[in-house]
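Hey,
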Amino acid sequence: MTAYIEAPTRTVDAANGVRFAYRELGDGGVPLVLFQHFRGNLDNWDPALVEALAANRRVVTFDNTGVGASSGTTPATVELMAHDAIAFLDALGIDRADILGFSLGSFVAQEVALIRPALVRRLVLASSAPQGAAGMHGWAPEVIDAVGARETQPEKFLGIFFAPSPASQQAGLEFAQRAFARTTDPDHPTTWETRLSQYDAITAWGIPNHALLQRVGTITAPVFVANGDSDPMILPHYSHLLAGLIPHAQVKIYPDAAHGFLYQHHAEFAADVDSFLTKEG
């Protein structure tokens, strides 16, 4: 199998007028499509995680509208991002998929599962929260300062995505080495305009509204919810809230880990996802 850092960047033209950039790895079965986090692009996925996930299936990563090398303007609502993601899947001819959404991508994944239930076979929500949950209306100042500045600083990023312990911080440094190992055909950096639109969407998603919490109860696909025990961006109790709202959802909290738990515990998380995706019923 090709290494993720060597996977070619491809494009596909969708019916919504957007030319989407994407990469693929692996083969066989129902594809697993990965939805990226705030300000992330194709290069920000952990190659070790993508390769582990692709050992038994086709894995697709993509830049949603206006992100990285994809054309268009990034919308400012999660709902519109979900419609764009559906347009991308339609353009690839994917009418049934497993979806793994990370952070903002997990919000979009929830919306896809609500808008087009028949599309989603199984759903993995990493570092997630339901729409309308109390306390989610914008991130804490130290969080948005670390991940939302015009010029992000590596040490601040590591402080949000990884726990304070020496072991977790070392895992963060190792992730950075893996993620930035690609030397040819890198993705385009995420623009400031995309950052503004994405944070508008995140903030709107977090406006407290108890009635909206009930929406996810109508998700019919099996769901696996996961997070790190020290995530300062989307607190772990939101994972328990989300799993409690979705019928029969599974939840797992990974130790000594923060927002980027899936990069720190990439082997364990990939094995857990594989077990979830291959489960009968």
